[in-house]
């Protein structure tokens, strides 16, 4: 491995129509890391993920993956490079069965990366195994999250962009999801995690970026962020 | 107005343009409101050309018939222009009426107002023909329609309309007589639910009633015009086939072709004889394929007949187009010839004069001696009954003639036509 | 008595299976690409003609080969259509696909005429498929059985393909959430062509087996497209299951009604469609899909200074007023006739623009109101009074009343569904014209005369002559001024309305309906009022036609006319009022010129229209503004304004 | 009628402008808001905060009528408005501004404001007038329009197309449009989303300046801003009200810390 980061976002400006959400935002993710993006609602976290994935095209700046410029690629092309987005709403195909959701992922994704087979994915998530032939729409929030992550694995992602994986989940399921993220990482998958739940981030992430109004205002390990009360207070509204 | 070199000529132009329009003439002074007098079209004895407008539905459902009719028209014009017997030449323009009476009238207006046609011919669908009927009267131009609807020379007749096409009434005459004689008087009907279908039903029924006291209408089924699926009707007809002697079908064109094709596939003609009005048309036989075999049809025309100068017509037609003429070709052909005879006889190209001359005038036609009789200006065509049979080779059914009625026998009585001329 | 029930069932299934094949492609294409493909019927006809081309030289048994080769060819054509015409429109309002494919209908239909000539032709089927069979007292032809079995197998094969193959899975997923399919690294856009091709091939199969059953003719596409839409809407746009159930249902219902209640046949499917759209807009099996965004691109009127525009308009009117004076010297009386046609259709187009261009309601059934006006005038003149004023007055009032009723029922459903429901109403009306005695059935009403006055006092146009210098203005020329007056009055009135508070609200609805609601406007009421005004103007246009021509026929309400008037509005530039009038002029001008050269003028017109939809969606009136930057060398708006995707702002959750 | 009046009188006791009663909204199985009881006093500046998915926008949609409630009731000025259409609610004095600027882009700035102003005057002219009398001839309406243009500082660009305005001005226009409907209560859904720090401050200043007399209900993510501006704060979590109080009370509330801010200080 060279010193070059796996993913590099360099001075990216992006948004919706005329609304600029990101302003010269820069960050890097190294292979094997879990990196979190924290910040308030509306700070630009989801927009960052969507810009990396290629759903949004940055108006300026450069995004590279394994040294290759992917700024102009669309979602299909970035997925083929080994990126996978697990969106906030999970976007399970409601009328496909759990197995079909996974099979579909198998048809897409990156051909170069070792991926889980559909069977392996079902084994990995016990809940899904039992509901393999149920429609996606019948799953609970936690099951949907697992299926969404399962799709990313079957698709052969080596960088997963996780958008608010614990949103709307019951506390005990939050723990399950956190365990899964850890397990992913142990399998050698790099994770870029967007979370509102600072607790989850600090527990999981190797490094954290705090973003505010589309700009990175802080970067550091969980330990140092935990200690930085000023940042916590100012940008995350967490007072000691 | 007197400015410029030729006041005289300019005044003539103005007059012509106005008289060609829908309004008759001028009195009074500039800026006044007046009541224009009727003004006769100036007769000029001296003319080299006559302008025809040929209106056909070149696009849409009847376009193949339009083409067929148009070839007959063209052939007639060509022959007349080459012939020494006529000391004028026919010039003509084609207009596409599409399927729409509104377009038909617009084209007729173009022909008359813009291109100066005094004689118009064409239209296959009866609603377009009826619209042009009115137009011809209003604009005082002679019109020879191509539709068979009874009312064209019936309730909606007028002195400018002359029809060589055989009317539904004439066909119904031979159908009713032959059916009553050969098949029986217990009849089931299937008609397309529009004017043509209803008129077939009415005409055949009236005649059956007068022929046979025991006549009975076993049943009527109606399909929408433009229908493409007749299974339900065929099943219903098959259900009553034991009680009925014959099925009379009041449809034409694609409707009839599809009906015959589906009835054939279901073997309906084995259960009950099928009698149609236009099954002898080549277009219908072509569309119906083997569904046409062993069905009976009224016949307005087939190339085989040996009346008048028909065989000369057939030869000339075949030489020109490499194909045999069919019903609409002869209508186009003879409509032009008879009007041309009228113009020659009248010695005028003034439509009103020609119309007067044409009414009741004797012609030699492909059907032998013929006339647009005075009471309704309908040609006194003979009609036949025929059977469509499997051909020796190919797919297209042959038509064998079974019976003939002369023009006199086929024509309805003048007082029954509803025409007041 | 079991046969009494089974026979209609078997009969109905025969046609039902064909409907299934036809509707399945239409529905899947909509599901994945949100394209409403009007040209589907033409692809169906192409299938039959390709088969004919194979079967005729090689005989009946080539039928089986044709059953595979012809759909393949049509599939390839489908792919080409998707690739080169549909693709540039993704991201625009889905109504543009309706417009585009309507243009393609004109083009393909004329190509069929050109290549194969008009007329009905029998498509020979192999010996083995002829004859009849009798089981359980049911009489059926072998070919019927073949249709049911083969069609059933095809439908099953398509279902199995969708259900069990990789492509099927991707297509199904695509119809649920396209972006997520992309996120998974699957190039769904590449499958669009495949889906379109497959849909086209299915239509071709339907065309071939139906061709063997009926006949093959260039009109066969037009005759199936409306029922096909009805089925797709009934079953639910985008649902394969819906297409299957809808197709069989319509086939059986039609057949049963023919047997037991023939009076409703023809009308019932439209009533059914209206009912389903009102009660369950997504159809029986349709799923909630996100309303596709994308605005309707209206013409830009801001190119000239208001003063210049006013002068231009006055100049135009003055010029128009002079037209009849040139008759006989500069041109023949036909010029006046043609101009009357343009004026009446210009008024009709203006009426459509008032709802389409200002409230975004695309009515696919506007011929309904034109026909209504025409018949109202005809019936009044024949039965009530010969006064032109009373007749026209009644035409306006009746059209407005029916527009209120149609609007009341339809406006609650939006976008594509509104287009479909108005189409259904128009077809219903068209059917009624054929059936009712008072409308004169299929032939319509003829021989109508009128006078211009009230209570028996007043002249007929033929009796009056105005003399201006050497030129006499009578009859047709006088009517020209009446029509021109009506058009100018309508234009001024609608323009005035648009500058009034009412018009402001209409414009606000076009811009942003949601915001309009949240500053306190009940937008449904405003849209309905606009629809009523539009219906009244369309009725006036139809009424004027009949007043002049003296007849009314059912063809006035034919759906193709609704399509043509949309063509005029788009050609000219929607949302400008004057653009559609120019559009009507260009339409008839083109027709006039083109028919002089070829009977296949619709081919040229259709091509021009397709190019307009793709490249100049804001119409002719936007041309100066488009060209200005190039002429002056400055930088201006690009030729293709890229509509920003609408982010839905009322969401279920935050 | 009499009964209703009594009811109304009861409700308007005190100076409550808005009250929701056990307001429930379900999307299929999912409960977006669960028996919300919210009371807002006249003249108050109330903020609603909560994590994503807490039901804030849903609550707004229920109050404005954009979504029908599954259960419960909304009272405005003591009157039950639960079954009224959105436009009816606007006419009773509930104004709303949107997350993404939501103006009539193709119309001029003046037309934008005038439309809102016109909505207010609707009952003062008859149907025919409203169809035919040009908008330019309604004096009171145009005066009010100009007044509002002045207040939001867009009088100079009044004849420009709204689309042509810079982003910040669009937000100003958005607020002007809301203001022109003369609302008693204004709901703001993230009025500063996507704005730079300066723009945010300007917008807030503007809101404070022009809407000083109105009751304000604000959804906002910028906690700092919320703490600074609000009289009261309501915290939503998973569709329920988690806490309510003054900014200081909220800051000190450990439940809020836990749920909303991620339980960081456990």
What does this structure look like?
Chain A has 240 residues and is α/β, with parallel strands linked by helices. Chain A contains 10 helices and 10 strands. The mean pLDDT of chain A is 85. Chain B folds into 2 domains: 195 residues, 3-Layer(aba) Sandwich (Rossmann fold), CATH 3.40.50.2300; 159 residues, Response regulator (Rossmann fold, 3-Layer(aba) Sandwich), CATH 3.40.50.2300. Chain B is 41% helix and 18% strand. The radius of gyration of chain B is 23 Å and the shape is globular. Chain D has 2 domains: 162 residues, P-loop containing nucleotide triphosphate hydrolases (Rossmann fold, 3-Layer(aba) Sandwich); 77 residues, no CATH class. In chain D, strands 7-8-9-4-10-11 form a 6-stranded mixed beta sheet, sandwiched between helices. In chain D, helix 6 packs across helix 7 and helix 7 packs parallel to helix 8. Chain D is globular. Chain D starts with a helix and ends in a 6-residue tail after the last helix. The N terminus and C terminus of chain D are likely disordered. Classes of the chains: A alpha/beta (240), B alpha/beta (421), C mainly alpha (654), D alpha/beta (266). The interface between B and C is large, with 94 and 89 residues.
Low-confidence segments of chain B: 1-43
Mean pLDDT of chain B: 85
Strand order of the largest sheet of chain B: 7-6-8-9-10-13-14
Radius of gyration of chain A, whole Å: 17 Å
Poorly predicted runs of chain A: none
Tell me the β content of chain A: 25-35%
| CATH structural fold name of the largest domain in chain B | Rossmann fold
Taken as a percent bin, the fraction of beta residues of chain B is 15-25%
State the helix count of chain A. Answer: 10
Q: Any idea what the radius of gyration of chain B is? A: 23 Å
CATH superfamily of the largest domain in chain B: Response regulator
Most extensive chain interface and residues per partner: B-C, 94 and 89 residues
